[in-house]
Design brief:
The structure is a homodimer. By secondary structure, chain A is α/β, with parallel strands linked by helices. Chain A has 16 helices and twelve strands. In chain A, α2 packs parallel to α4 and α7 packs across α11.
Chain lengths: 424, 424
């Protein structure tokens, strides 16, 4: 089994609920020895009606159990459709396995409340971040995570086993259930001599730090804050839904940074927490954006300024994150940063990362800003590839959570297997 | 594996959301050759607070996604607790496998709308039931089913694989996702010379008809209508929640049947449908009961009369059901009826069945009214035993849905496997 080549699909939809990505991979080997080749991918947006319904159940607003029950089926059919499309388009003769992340509609991780006490200005935080001996407090509340998109429907349509519900096992042993891609980042991008960072820019953005020559136990990874989520919400609100996002960052690039807004953004308590930490729409969704819009309503800033400041906020999130990696404090401790996720297509966001890297450049230790494309993995496919790999790890019985990353008490096999039989 | 003895737990909670049943079984063999011995069981009611929250999300009333997300965890912990209790109480050294049905909070099966056109009086329906050439109409709507109670939590706590989400695969191939116990009824109760009926009386009641000497393809089974669900709702509403159910049917036994109410009850369109059919709170929940209460408000009948009439309605549901079994039309085509489910503890309901059997007795072909206890399976444990058996069938890759029962297009393996590893 381990040496045999498997055709594995990875299916996912991010926190922005834009649509479904289906990636077909060829996977050879198992565990850390896995080799992955991307065969192709299909991305299909949800219909406006379905997306609106998904955003509605994600919101804190009331919904009905029946609506969630029907969405479980409808999203499952959507995922199955997109999977069938990639199979057809690539002319695949068989699919051995599918990993389906599903559509997250709620994610309530353990709230560690590990506060870095102190103000959030860039300078102070940089100092604060290194001191882990500040007072902390463990909140007790019920955690949970909900992904929808019935795996049985995908299994019935594609006639192969489907692994899904990847986040539950990690949370069942005390973890955040996120991020789960660091293990796959390690498999794909580890390097004997170079320290690398993989920066995913999605609705939420997450970073993985891969120290040179290290095993998976030394990986640092966590959600750094929002990527597109806040920008998309601003675009929708301020154009009254006429624009759903800032295409290619065109507006942001001509905007100005508004200091009071940037201060308000960077006051979000999530930024002050030490990892393990994960976030979602619960922290950075429309509700939060609406509060900010209402707070600064009287300023009448143009949309471009809001978006530009939102991008600067992303830069701040990155900086705060990279300061948490161990090493000298006057420069970032890595030689390459590899970007992925849909946000990479927004030059205004990429610019923020490039600007940060000036810190290293000015000290004669430049950082190469790369994209996963440089490693044969188109930026849009990276998440899908990860869930294909995690599905393979599940059926191979390889634990793929990283306790130091998620806060879990132990290593667990991620995912639940839906195999309805009759596959041949 | 097939010959080895396995200790398997079955966990479930019925549509009434009373609490969790955990049954420990020893299972030897696989597929139709499975032999099952009940080792013990624990039943624990939900706390009043949790039950109220579950009933709230089951109702058509608004809820929040976050509430469902938290309940998924809380019910999972509840199931794990009860499972751990049965393990401790029986002093089990190991558990090999768990089948957890979870708590159904929504079930929307395909609506076949196969109407038996014609009035619903007992006599006319009996005739009508045999004619399958009446006009029918296939509704198209989105189907789905939601069971909560995170399997990962159970797997982490009990350190063994957990099979859950039993209904999805059958629905993914066009089935009702219910009933699923007929396959286990066949394994447990089939007889070479006697035709048997297994009558489960739960919140919803379902029947399995096992013709003498037949294979699983000849089983007829379906939900017949409510069991306790309507009686419980009546007791709660009419006592303003002071009584949650009619203990031992004490009130029903002294009540009178009210003809207009019985007529109104038997007008429910579910009774007119031909199998495959399944029902739930969506058809017979509080909303329906409230409409009846409001319709007959002016009558001022005592609670006992409402309950007695509710029991008579159960009898009607049984009769309509048993008339759908093939055979001579002047008597029921079976020699034994085996009762199970919590409703067996309500003598007023059991009386309805005994009264029906007079049809056969008067023709010199008496029917033995038995309980699953007579076969070593306490009535309260029958559902749990079934999900233990279905879990074993899942890991053994044995398809356990019956297409002629559920309406599915094909046989499928039921259940999804959650095995987080580190079990030894």
């Amino acid at each position: 089994m381990a040496r045999k080549s498997r055709i594995v699909l990875g299916l996912n939809s991010g926190t922005s609920a834009d649509g479904v990505d289906a990636v077909a991979c060829e996977i050879v080997g198992r565990g850390l020895g896995m080799k992955v080749k991307v065969l192709g991918h299909v991305q299909r947006p949800y219909s406006a009606a379905l997306r609106d319904r998904l955003l509605a159940v994600m919101a804190p607003a009331p919904t009905r159990t029946e609506e969630l029950c029907r969405l479980e089926t409808e999203v499952g059919e959507e995922f199955a459709d997109v999977a069938a499309t990639v199979v057809k388009r690539l002319g695949l003769k068989r699919v051995d396995l599918i990993g389906s992340h599903g559509q997250t509609i709620c994610h309530l991780p353990p709230d560690y409340h590990r506060l870095i006490a102190g103000p959030t200005s860039r300078h102070r935080l940089r100092v604060g971040a290194t001191s882990r001996n500040r007072p902390r407090f463990d909140g007790t509340r019920v955690v949970g995570t909900l992904q929808i998109g019935d795996a049985s429907i995908i299994a019935a349509r594609l006639r192969c086993p489907v692994v899904h519900h990847f986040r539950q096992a990690d949370m069942a042993v005390g973890g955040q259930g996120a991020p789960l891609v660091p293990w796959t980042d390690h498999v794909l991008f580890r390097h004997p001599n170079k320290s690398r960072v993989v920066q995913n820019i999605g609705g939420i953005s997450n970073v993985t730090y891969l120290p040179a020559g290290s095993g998976p136990d030394n990986i640092i990874a966590f959600d750094i804050g929002p990527g597109n989520m806040v920008l998309d919400a601003l675009a929708r609100r301020l154009t009254h839904d006429k624009e759903r996002f800032d295409r290619n960052g065109r507006r942001a690039r001509i905007g100005k940074i508004r200091a009071p807004l940037l201060d308000a953004l960077t006051c979000h308590p999530f930024l002050e927490r030490l990892p393990p930490k994960s976030c979602g729409r619960e922290e950075f969704g429309v509700a939060w954006v609406d509060r900010l819009l209402s707070k600064f309503k009287s300023r009448r800033w143009p949309l471009a300024d809001w978006l530009r400041t939102g991008c600067a906020f992303f830069g701040t999130c990155c900086m705060i994150a990279y300061c948490l990696f161990p090493g000298q404090h006057d420069l970032f401790p890595f030689q390459e940063i590899i970007l992925c996720g849909g946000g990479v297509n927004n030059p205004a966001l990429v610019f923020e990362i490039q600007a940060l890297m000036v810190v290293n450049e000015s000290r004669g230790r430049p950082v190469d800003v790369l994209r996963t494309d440089d490693f044969g993995i188109p930026v849009q496919t990276k998440e899908g590839v990860s869930f294909a790999m995690l599905a393979a790890a599940c059926v191979d019985r390889v634990p793929a959570n990283l306790p130091q990353v998620t806060g879990a008490r132990k290593h667990v096999v991620l995912g639940q297997i839906c195999d309805i039989g009759g596959n041949s």
